[in-house]
Write the structure tokens for this entry.
Amino acid sequence: MEKLTGIVYKYRFWISGILLILLVFFEIHGSSILYWQNYLSNLTNIYEPLIGISRGIRSDEWAVNTPMLLSQYYNNSGLFPYFSETIRGTLTDTFIIYGQPVRDVAIFFRPFHWGYLLLSPAKGLSFFWISRVIALFLVSFEFGMILTQKSKLLSLIYALLITWSPVVQWWFAINGLVEMLVFGQLALIMITLYMNNQNYYKRSLYALVVLICAGGYILTFYPAWQVPLAYVFLVLFIGVVLENRKHFHWNKKDVGIGLGLILFLSIGMIYILAKSGGTISSVMNTVYPGGSAETGGNQFSRLFLYPGNLFFAFSRELTYANFCELAVYFDFFPMGIILTGWVLFKQKKADIFLILMLLANTALILWCLFSWPEWLAKATLLSYSKPVRAFLAVGFLNILLLIKALVLFEGGFSKWIKVGAALLMSVVITLLSRELYEGYLDLKMNILILFLLFGSFYVILSGNKDWARKALLVISLAIVFVAGLFVNPVVSGLDAVYQQNLIKKIQQINSADNGLWIVDSGAEIGFPIINLPLMAGAPTINSTNVYPVLERWHLLDPDGSEEDIYNRYAHISMNLTNTNSETNFALKSPDLFEVNLNIADLEKLEVSYVFSKRDLSTLSNEEVSLIELADENGFKIYTVNYN
């Protein structure tokens, strides 16, 4: 067994590369895109995941992000345009918001999108999913080797707990979380290598990777996670520099490399800002999400959510919340903090990593628990991060503290102290978790949690004993297997979309005449159907508007009296009417508004096609005619004639 693990470790990069090639060849990915079949009828084939189930709750992935990226393959502006004419039915920045693959030099900072530019849609999607999970596991393991002073066992535990944690898997495809974790840790690895290598060819390569990491991290463009995680990576960076300062020898060449890195990063960001500055300004000036300032607090409960995460992948839905919002790291709280305190104060080991991480963790926990003065929130930039999002960094730090403290922990406790402490903490956390989940955790679940926590805490308190570390590995494998590995389905290809008659018909119509489409929601088919035409390349006005088209809505609202309704990130329901009432807007939720659209106003929007489940021919009048072109998979397509 040791010989086999030694071989796997030695050839881990080659094995990962071969695995990536094989999985991409067979078009394996984790998208829940098969969920679209639930909205179609008269299907000739039903496609099923190879493993797992498609998650309807992950609609921001399968119903928003994935249709948008697929639209980049079918665009009148050319393949992978920076500004698409398909999304929103007008020129739309595809790069900076819900970042999509673009054929532009800016893609240099998004290596996980490179596969789209070179491969078919299915293989490009596979590369995006598989390369990210492999990269996250590898860089977590390699950074774990730095953190643990080359303990392969603890590094493997760390990589497992980071890569297949519930929060990472439930948010895997959107908001750039995986990219932040990959780029942040990879940059630290490169800095460590840079400081310990005197070869300037290699140092230049390390600096190039840091450049990609820095740009990629910035361009995730999700401050709610970027800011708190930046604090984590900042203290880790300080720790890496201080730990390696004795080995680092520098001269003028290093100054040149550093200045070059700053110069190229600045040029890249200025270039992107020049192209996307208007988009960023538009987003910041929306009513939602806008630029409202957070002041922290009210997230004490999240410290004790992690036990319940065990059951999300296999159990019934929650009635009062969704799994994504309650997903956290399984961080064994409070063990990381307890062991850190023991090492620092009892053993009196002034480890720089532990000290810095503990300080950062304390600050972020205070942000999550208590309201701060607005000036302090803004000064620390935490005003950009809701505590419910910032807590991600707390869980991350709890794991980092635990792994690092286990490296330094010496001696041990007596058997009965370990039993007593483990039992007390496991009972308290089980009871707190039970209350927080409001009846979701039944008796069997609570018993399982109690035994798992007791065993985990007992093993952790056993410290650096070989059996304890191996036992912790087994526990970690069990946790990620149950709580993380089956969150996303294992799917092959995109036939579930592109073999449907409806998609083929939209492609056919759009190829013959690339007019503007709207999705009529009169039969209550709004979201996610509003994004279905995008996958066939049809420019759709009321597809999810990642930022508003104020000029378009002003055509329907000349005095701007309803601008607060449509000046937002929004899913848009359009209900066609031919009554005497004027077109009006109604806000349904922070990210959803409704347009009751009189057909007389179709011409103002220059609509050519209407996609609906209703018989719209009855709406025709002397000015506007709606003529049915197709009826496929339960949906009708109408062409609009202006008389």
Summary: The chain is about 50% helix and 10% strand. The radius of gyration is 26 Å.
